[in-house]
Amino acid sequence: MSKSPWTSLRRFSGVAAGVMAGVFAMSAQAGTLDTVKQRGTLNCGVSEGVIGFSEKDDKGVWRGFDVDFCRAVAAAALGDASKVTFTPLSASQRFDALKDGKVDLLSRNTSWTLGREAGLGLAFAGITYHDGQGFLVKRALGVDSALSLDKAKVCVEAGTTSQLNLADFFKANSMTYEEKVFPNAAEATAAFADGKCDVLTRDQSALHGERLKLPKPADAVVLPDVISREPLGPVVRSDDFPWFNVVKWVNFALVNAEELGIAAADVEKALQSQKPEVRRFTGAEGNFGKAMGLDPDWAIRAVKATGNYAEIYERNLGSGSKLGVPRGLNQLWNMGGVLYAPPMR
């Protein structure tokens, strides 16, 4: 009995479907990590200039807390912390640049919110800095509390959670204000310096740096009030879970390194350690790097390049910097803060 032409067609369709499924599977595997490796450099989006977080020094070299995180990811993924191309982005540009593939990673003092993940198709790879919104005011204003800012002129950057929090704070406290909106942080600070507003509002960590940019820093003060929770962290596209995992675990590795006592200067000592948790960290045991598409020593490479979390913090924001911002909530969980990371096991 001869075979029906429909049977042959169904078989052909089945084979074709299998081939296409294989093509799609290969395409899915060729994600951001593979692209970064093939390109040989990490494209990282940073701010246009926030003291302590991301700014160019007098030699044109990018420095800062967020910059160091990019370098740690490059060290883990590429074995070389210098293989990073930094792209300065305004608040209004940052998410489109990430979604459009202009950058592989956004490390730009960005607050983690539900709307940004659910509405923009993005994923925050943990919290690198626990912050909160505050106010920088002219000393001549004679106020020591945010509750004394009724009818004040307030400079704020457009397209930020700061703008939304500002409205919530004044409404909740039955106060009014005159909003002065600017497209970027530099223009908002310049307007504050020129007297176009009495108050500048941003995350408190940034305000300490903005004060130093003023012609007369002593004429302004950061109020102690914190009106919001601002969990800042690195952001990636939500359609690439393997890359999300890489960025997330580099973040966790820097925190774990501090808790384990592994610093940049102690890498060789860590490599000789017989402690199980240290051996897993260095890649001597567990082979966790392979599961993420990385080399076994990915985590220790990151620490060797940038230091652990404490080293990055102190160098850019803390006692070793011109800001001198106390760690506060950003201390380890066993040191009075809220910082901790899942175990590497």
TrEMBL record:
Pfam families tied to this protein: SBP_bac_3
**Signal keyword on record:** yes
GO terms under biological process: amino acid transport
Which keywords belong to this entry?
A: Signal, Transport
The record's annotation in InterPro entries points to: Bact_solute-bind_prot3, SBP_3_CS, Solute-binding_3/MltF_N
Name the PROSITE patterns for this protein. Answer: SBP_BACTERIAL_3
Query: By its UniProt entry, which CDD domains does this protein fall under?
Result: PBP2_BztA
- Annotated Solute-binding protein family 3/N-terminal domain ranges read 41-274
Q: Where is the signal peptide?
A: 1-30
**Keyword Transmembrane found:** no
Q: In which family does this protein belong, per the annotation?
A: Belongs to the bacterial solute-binding protein 3 family.
Q: What is this protein called?
A: General L-amino acid transport system substrate-binding protein
Species of origin: Camelimonas lactis
Task: Tell me the lineage of the source organism.
Answer: Bacteria, Pseudomonadati, Pseudomonadota, Alphaproteobacteria, Hyphomicrobiales
